[in-house]
Amino acid sequence: MENGGWDNWTFHLGESMLLRLPSAQEYALAVEKEHRWLPVLAPHLPRPIPVPLVRGEPGAGYPFSWSVYEWIDGMPASFDAVVDPVGFAKDVADFVAALHGIDATEGPQPGKHNWFRGATLGTFDAMAHNALADLRGHIDDKLALEIWTRALESRWDGVWLWGFPPTPLVGEF
């Protein structure tokens, strides 16, 4: 196994499946969400996504819930692997457009299970200020703070979208 993952350890299981074991408690929080929502999303997308087949429970010395998924043949996208960058970009855009076309109003809200992805920018204000303090002298931190402050003043359009935070910036910078 060259790279079995960071959040999860992933292993090929037979010819058509993979075993996915969360590497820590915080990653195990996503198992239930993935089992609930990936099968809902999959039929609406133009490319295959992993669909869970089995949810395993903690036991035999392993402390977290885990999953068995369908194996999807392919290779990681890289500059060397993508022969047609324009076609690849179109495929990605089509996938994102299809994902955004799926009603997300009942989908999972930001929380510990997804590191608060999709939360309002204010959720990350203290973290942003700490990062800007750490970057002082390496970047124009005053300009970065001005941009951050303007971003905080932006308003959400009220539409939940799959795959991206629900806090698009409104207006121009």
Task: Give an overview of the whole structure.
With 173 residues, the chain is of the alpha+beta class. It has 5 helices and 4 strands. The protein has helices at residues 25-28, 30-41, 85-100, 125-135, 141-153; strands at 8-13, 17-22, 52-56, 66-70. Strands 1-2-4-3 form a 4-stranded antiparallel sheet. Helix 4 (125-135) runs antiparallel to helix 5.
Quick gist of this model?
With 173 residues, the chain is an alpha+beta fold. It has helices spanning 25-28, 30-41, 85-100, 125-135, 141-153; strands at 8-13, 17-22, 52-56, 66-70.
The H/E string reads EEHHEEHHH
Low-confidence stretches: 165-173
The percentage of residues in β strands lies in: 5-15%
Number of strands: 4
- Binned, the helix content reads 25-40%
Q: Which shape, going by the Cα principal axes? A: globular
Spatially, the strands of the biggest sheet line up as 1-2-4-3
| Average pLDDT metric | 86
Q: Roughly how many Å is the radius of gyration?
A: 19 Å
Structural class from helices and strands? Answer: alpha+beta
Q: How far from one another are the termini?
A: 45 Å
- Structure annotation, total helices: 5
| Biggest sheet statistics | 4 strands, antiparallel
